[in-house]
């Protein structure tokens, strides 16, 4: 490997959100979705160069950024976009909130799968819009949409569907047939779909391409807001920069109007990082996926040996959604944390019988976490 994913890097000094979460320094933080790896060195180099200029005033988007995204989407998924469709924002969560403001009037509702990354829930609350949950079905560990329930719950008030693909938590990569079924229901009800596809580069199956919801058909193209970002792929979450891709001109105009003065400027370094990542990050990303794939394999093997725990996939993301419902534990998250493994609490996503474990870390750290988990469960029996 050309790039180093094995080194242990102290992150406390940098005020890392992940590493300051737990007061007890003996707990390994494995919660929020950032990885304990340095980002592509080419990104760091580009930032260093920009630092040397010493002037950090208001900054326009790098001239090539949109065309780099455009090229990436064609290369990775065969999706041909018009650069006009793209609106850059300081992060994808901003996009979730602006989408609620744009697609929903007071009294309207968004349908939101559950469990889900909590900011989806906050977005409709923040904007004083209604929300109706549709529970995902757990099909042998794979979280799937429940189309019957979605159809039943659909009504005139539901003006938007929040789709997360790959889904967080659980890492389901929805296939063409599944996406089409959802699009058909939304078309029948004339519902807009906001598709958060931030994790779409992190699919494990070799050769499998992510299918953007907007690629499905004309309805999906003209009634969707697709949210993407380089920050998860290249591990630079502290440099927020994301894109909303909205082919429909009226919807796009409304979205931009709703962002005005509310969404902050994208930072100088975030722009520099995004451009460098798209331009030079591919070799690093290819090795990252290999490394993560090996971590995932190890995690699955070891978790399967522990009675009561089960883990499906994940088909994408470095976030394992571990089912603890057969352990008999009242609070599985507490159990893991007391064992020294700082998981993300399942209830934050909507299911307290699960924990979410981030395996985007050096192998030795994952091994240490697994040995702590095994020890805690063996001592319990
Ligand atoms: C599905 C999903 N959307 C958005 C985000 C965060 O996006 P951003 O940091 O660009 O606001 C995350 C982070 O974990 C996520 O999992």
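Sequence proposed for the structure above (381 residues):
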């Amino acid at each position: 490997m050309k790039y180093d994913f094995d080194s242990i890097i102290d992150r406390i000094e940098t005020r890392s959100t992940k590493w300051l979460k737990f007061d007890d320094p003996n707990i390994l933080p494995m919660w929020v979705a950032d990885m304990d790896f340095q980002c592509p060195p080419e990104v760091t180099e580009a930032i260093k160069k920009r630092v040397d200029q010493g002037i950090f005033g208001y900054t326009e988007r790098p001239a090539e950024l949109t065309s780099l995204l455009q090229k990436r989407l064609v290369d990775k998924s065969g999706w041909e976009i018009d650069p006009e469709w793209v609106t850059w924002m300081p992060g994808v969560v901003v996009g979730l909130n602006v989408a609620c403001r744009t697609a929903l009037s007071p009294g309207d509702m968004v349908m939101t799968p559950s469990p889900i990354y909590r900011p989806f829930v906050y977005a409709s609350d923040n904007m004083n819009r209604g929300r109706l949950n549709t529970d995902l079905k757990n099909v042998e560990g794979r979280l799937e949409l429940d189309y019957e329930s979605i159809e039943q719950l659909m009504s005139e008030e539901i003006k938007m569907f929040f789709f997360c693909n790959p889904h967080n938590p659980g890492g389901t990569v929805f296939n063409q047939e599944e996406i089409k079924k959802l699009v058909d229901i939304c078309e029948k009800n004339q519902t807009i779909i906001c598709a958060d596809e931030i994790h779409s580069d992190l699919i494990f199956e070799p050769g499998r391409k992510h299918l953007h919801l907007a690629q499905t058909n004309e309805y999906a193209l003209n009634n969707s807001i697709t949210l993407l970002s380089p920050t998860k792929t290249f591990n630079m979450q502290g440099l927020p920069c994301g894109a909303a891709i909205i082919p429909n001109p009226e919807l796009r105009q409304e979205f931009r109007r709703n962002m005005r003065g509310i969404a902050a400027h994208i930072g100088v370094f975030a722009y520099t990082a995004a451009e460098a990542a798209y331009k030079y990050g591919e070799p690093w990303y290819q090795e990252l996926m290999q490394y993560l794939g090996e971590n995932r394999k190890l995690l699955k093997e070891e978790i399967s040996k522990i009675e009561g725990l089960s883990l499906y996939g994940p088909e994408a993301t470095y976030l394992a959604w571990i089912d603890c419902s057969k352990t008999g534990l009242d609070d599985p998250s507490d159990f893991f944390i007391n064992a020294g493994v700082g998981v993300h609490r399942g209830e934050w996503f909507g299911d307290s019988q699960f924990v979410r474990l981030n395996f985007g870390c050096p192998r030795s750290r994952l091994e240490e976490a697994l040995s702590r988990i095994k020890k805690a469960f063996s001592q319990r029996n």
